[in-house]
Specification:
Layout (H helix, E strand, L loop, with lengths): L1 E9 L5 E7 L12 E6 L7 E6 L9 E7 L5 H8 L6 E8 L12 E6 L4 H13 L6 E7 L8 H10 L3 E7 L7 E2 L2 H11 L5 E6 L1 H12 L9 E5 L2
Parallel strand pairs: 7-8, 7-11, 8-9, 9-10, 11-12
Antiparallel strand pairs: 1-2, 1-6, 2-5, 3-4, 3-6
Length: 234
């Protein structure tokens, strides 16, 4: 296990905050899409451990970013949102995991996320942009309630300008606006049904969203691992 110091807290939206950590002893080497296991209040009886996908990407520094969705009554989110302060020490393991990009990207990729499930996809897309990695079309679908809940909005619009084959598609379930509305599944499934070749689908978010998505894709002949990758938050 390693020590991480909380170096900054950025209130991205009302319910999604960004937490920046620094490891004082080592540079982080990891693959975009991996997660860390974070322990708050280490050594205390009420210590709490949770897994979070890393929202930043390898940049040769000792920093990593997590974006956390507030969950009322959730031990870790209650602590991070209401008690944690810059300078606090945490224990972490990782980064680790296999929720990563293929070695070569030879077909379209659809990233499907809700809430802080955007984390690994933000890491992957920025990594692609910074390293000039060749891709097919990449679409990032982000399901949330209102415009005020959209994470990394300005950053994603900038990435669209840098990467001509990348598109960020927020879908709002509780607000009418000029963009997509309803539930996230209906929007990427329309494209799946029209595609000449199956895209590779990545899901990250709450288990209910992922279960629904997997059911829709199974009905269309998609297979786990070959066509579908998942990272579940609970």
């Amino acid at each position: 296990m390693n020590v991480a110091i909380l170096s900054d807290i950025i209130k991205e939206t009302k319910s999604n905050w960004r937490f920046i950590f620094e490891d004082p002893l080592m540079t982080l080497n990891f693959i975009p899409g991996q997660l860390v296991q974070l322990c708050a209040k280490p050594g205390q009886e009420d210590s709490v451990v949770r897994n979070y996908s890393v929202a930043s990407w390898p940049d040769g520094t000792n920093k990593f970013e997590l974006i956390v969705t507030y969950l009322k009554g959730g031990a870790m989110s209650e602590y991070l949102f209401n008690e944690a302060k810059v300078g606090d020490e945490f224990i972490y393991r990782g980064p680790m995991g296999v929720f990563t990009l293929p070695d070569t990207i030879e077909r379209d990729i659809f990233f499907v996320s809700t809430g802080s499930g955007i984390s690994p996809f933000r890491s992957m897309v920025n990594w692609i942009a910074e390293n000039g990695i060749k891709t097919q079309k990449i679409k990032l679908f982000f399901g949330t309630r209102t415009q005020q809940d959209i994470c990394y909005w300005e950053e994603m619009k900038l990435l669209e300008q840098i990467l001509p084959d990348f598109e960020f598609i927020p879908v709002l379930s509780r607000e009418e606006w000029s963009g997509k509305t309803g539930y996230v599944h209906e929007h990427y499934l329309k494209l799946v049904d029209d595609a000449l070749e199956k895209p590779l689908i990545y899901y990250c978010g709450w288990d209910r969203m992922i279960a629904e998505g997997r059911k829709h894709l199974a009905e269309r002949g998609f297979e786990m691992t070959k066509d579908i990758r998942v990272e579940i938050f609970g």
